[in-house]
Amino acid sequence: MPLKLSATEPSITRVWPRWLAADTRSRGTIWSVGVVCAVARLTRVTRLRTAHQPSAPVLCASGLRKVYGEGRSARVLLDEVALAVAPGELVAVVGRSGSGKSTLLHLLGGLDHPDAGRVEVGGRPVTGASERELSALRRESIGFVFQFFHLLPELDGEANVLLPARLPGAPAGADRRGRALIDRLGLRSVARLAPHQLSGGEQQRFAIARALVADPLLVLADEPIGNLDAAAGSVVLDLLRSSADEGRAVVMVTHQAEATARADRVLRLEHGRLFPTHASGAAITDHAEPAPRPVSE
Amino acid sequence: MTSGPLGVLRAILVDAIRGLRARRGRIGLPVRTVFAASLVLGVVTTAAYALATGFDRAAERADLPSVIARFADEDRSTIDARVRRLPNLEARAYRTEFRRVPLAARGRHLREGVVQVADDARRGYAVVAGRDLRTRGDEAVIEAGLAREWRLRPGDRITVGPLGPARIVGVALSPDNVAYPLARTARVYLSRRGLIRRLGAGDFPVNLVLLWARDDARTDVLLSQARGSAGAVRGLRFTTRTGLRTLVEQGSGLVVSLLVAFAFVAASLAGLLLGAGARFEVQRRLPATAVRRAVGASPGAVVALHGAEAALVAAPAAAAGLALGGALAAGPTRRALEPLNELAPETSALAILLAGMWVLVVALAALAAAAAAWRAAHRPPAQLLRGGDLRGAPPRGASGGLALLGARLVAAHRVRYLSLVTVLAAAAAVVLLLLALASLLGSLRDDPGTLGKRYQLTARLPADRAPEVEAIAGVREAAPRYELAAVSATALGSPLRLIAYPGDHTRFEAPALADGRRLRSDGEAEVGAGLAEAVGLRVGSTLAVQPPAARELRFRVVGIVRALQDEGRVAYVRPRRLAAALPSLRGPLALRLEPGADRERVRRGLAALGAEPRAVGGATGESRGLLEALAALLRLVALTVSLVCASSLAQALALAAAERRGAVAALRALGADARALRRLLGGAAAAVVLPAAALALVLEGFVLSPVTERLVAGYADLPLQTSLGQVGLLIGVLALSIGAASAWTARALAREPVVAGLREAEA
User: CA B668, CA B662: separation in Å to the nearest integer?
Assistant: First the structure.
């Protein structure tokens, strides 16, 4: 059963024109994403989430490029990637292993630096920001969900969820929200258990609760059901869907078809670029994908 | 392909090298741990070995005789007739010793020169520079202390009293006495034949004979026979090689004992560091171990791999640490040995010793890793994969800030946490001990109490005015101190000093008791080790003393004390018999002051009584050079241990941070900035340091200090007590260390890309 996390904001999914990410190989489209992001920046009154314009994209990325290695061994993992995600939108990024999905997510969340391009979250620049600014951005506006959960084994489930609330500069009320999330996600009975005493599904629900404690604008989920069985995975996907329905932008990297079925848009990362897929819920791994291109290409 | 044990060993080594290559960026911490432990061991081992064996080495090189006999001038043939019949005698050599010969060179003068005229083949000294004497009358070999102090070298000229200038052809060293200027006299050796030829005179009478025993273990037979056959030889005094060792090593024995204590602590510290490091490494690689076990590797294979890897990592780090430690200690050790006329070990001998230590360190590192791996390998792989190092449920409750979280992070791994606290506590306890010893070194130089003297002032006042002196504020007690030069009546005139106090002399002078008990009655004596050795006294034997112009006095020896005054040729007695034999015996009043007494006020009080106080010195004067050299050595040991202590904390944090790299990366992904990381790491550091500091105080107060005091009790009275100031200093340093280590580690962590930590955690 999908969990409704909040009823305070109307669902605004599907308000963002899908054509924006239809074909990122088109220079015109990239330009369009850039213009939309710029307009969104100009029209934003304040950077506070409460003042965030519902129609403006939460995430704007353009011209992203990431190269691994140097010289002859250099490989282009991402090339001229552009992406805009609106509030309330759940975008799934699919692609074969090694195609750069996780790298894209890391760049979007400011966990890694692109070689070129620009990323903004809620109108605040990610690229070019100092480490302090990035920390503040992650703390206030971005929630991460990892494939391997990254729960601290020394803390019980509840303490893991409340971890962001302990950070200096944490949003007010995060503590209360974290406890409410534990109750709403049905984790109260196992909240005092250590991560290694929890099932994979329970661990990922705790990790999602942790990602939502600060009430972020953007949730980035890296293979959130990659380590879960179908039933547990379904619960997690419902949570992410609900999270988007609450008005957050959610970008999910996934391999699984059942995950793409819950997405508003499905993009395929191939040859270092994003392509729209024809339908959500399609098989992901049956596409042959060449290795990342050498820089010289 | 090679099969059998060699093949297995080769396969393990290849696997280990491959593994290390793959993680070469992660072996920095274990390398630093082994290096730090080896550095301490290198310093302490080098210094302790060099000081403990310095006398034997010098005696061996100098061919030091078993017995040296000094006597009044006698005809050589007369003496030789008696000496050649002695049992157990391998060789003999005769000397003529001229005392109080003025020496001058390079504008420096010395009135207390000693010239020894030598002739026989066996010299009893080692030529350490230049060559030995030939038969020329204008050649001289000078002692190393004089050469060092006056900067003389072979080829220089020295004026030897009325003989005039002589060319220095060599520099010699003999451990039968400490070196100039620690000894007031400086020795110059001249050739007997050359001198006879130069002066055109007949043969000189001899007054010194060197005797080499065939069997050193039976020197006592030779000695007693020599005493028995001495007959009318006047002023006969014997010195044995064993006695010399006792006397010469009394000074360095204190430091040797301290170094032995340090070696023990350092070895424990090194072992703990190595063990903790090994456990960290095994713990960090639990998932890899689980996978190995899951694919069929036996526990033995896992253990062998970890052991081999630890040995491969430890081998170069231990070699570097030991070599550096040895090199650092070599200079101060040599400087400490020089005043004692002792030799530093050969580089090859030291290299062999350090190679042995290297094998020990590498083996210890391998064993520590193997032991940790053994425990891990015997757990189910599934448990390891799920973070099997955490037992039971974590602590309850989610409240508290980041500092508390840091404390919980570091304390969650209980065994590791306890190891870390123990290592730091041991290191901090050593630092506390060193702080106490640093104060003590000053005391050793300036405070007579350290050397057994518990009175601080003397005043020339008659004994019956002691109550008036005791009435002065700040004076705890006062009593007359009698000191009398005498000779042994049984040992043919061996000089000694009788020291007497009414009542218990330990109130004023309490040299450490080496054997027997303290005085209880007028007929008893406590004799210094030097006198006991020279005259052949033991507990229960009789000390017969011939005071000047008085009848012979006899005392029963009830104790042997390690007195440093007059090379230990002293005897403590009650004054009644002395006063009876010498009615004119007088002595100043010795004053024992209250702790912290106002000396100026005491001086004024004494002045009012018509006396001028005289302060009692410590081991000042000639001993200052030796003590400063020894202090330098201790400071070096202190510095290395302190460095290791400080780096242990930083390393512990770095280790913890490296181990929890994934957790730190996850925290940063959640928005933790450098400030948050500092709080987190500060909490982790405090959780280690605070209990470690408490444990250190307990360790130092109840283990290290008592052990050190007992070890050095034979040499000095060392009331090792950590003052509040020292504890405050330790806490301050630890607090600074927490801040610095947290800031440094947080800075390093914040510079690392977040994804790097996440990827490693996911690998």
Answer: 10
